[in-house]
Amino acid sequence: MAATTDAWRRDMRVLGAIFALTTVSVAVALYVLVVSVLSDAEWDGLHLPTSLQAAQRLGDALQSFATKAPTRLLLAHMCCYLYLQTFAIPGTVFFNLLGGALFGITWGFPLCLLYNTLGSVFMFLLSRQFGRRVLLHYFPERLTQLKEMIDGHRDDLALYMVFLRVFPFTPNWFINMASPHLDIPVLQFSIGPAIGLIPYNFLSCKAGLILKELRSRGDIIDTTTTIQLIVVAIVGAILLPRLKQRFAAKATIKDTEEKKED
Questions:
Q1: Where are the domains of the chain?
Q2: Which residue ranges run through the membrane (predicted)?
């Protein structure tokens, strides 16, 4: 028992050290890439917006820096996003908004989707190396429940991983941590966020683009935005209920078979 306790504590210390080292590295990268080269005017614009005008000033300040140093801003955005996603720190939605505002839908959306997927894979790999004993110590019942859900859908595992992202019955961070210990290959795991989080990333990046182009409250929903939202809604209305029915029916069949065996 003591050996098991020492093992999970040791893993926690290793994860803590990795987190601390990564935090320092990201802070240094942000200082070198952004902070050290900001002008006074850009600094003045970096405030949490409390009005439409303040939001516009924030967007103008960031856009000014993006025009002056686009590569620096791109690298800083990537570092922050991967850092938050890898360690399950809340705030990626804010960087989706920034991605849409600074890089537009054409670049911001695929970049944010890529970072979301890569960050999830990084968390998967960290957990595979150091997370098993930590999960068993803190979340044994939740891990068992997720294992039962996964075991019922081994035949269509990739599709089910997408389903879990679209319908987050289990938090995304827990799926990222638990998956390597449920015999889920990294390729099939990565399909989940890469496809299942498309609507979330698209809509949040689109919201950031709207913020950038905002000049009045009447600009919030224009014709293009309305059409895009309608397309997303139609696709969701057609595909998502079918996915839900598919896996719900499969779970019901499995439960019935188990009762017959009993």
A1: 2-33+69-255
A2: 14-38, 73-95, 101-126, 157-175, 220-240
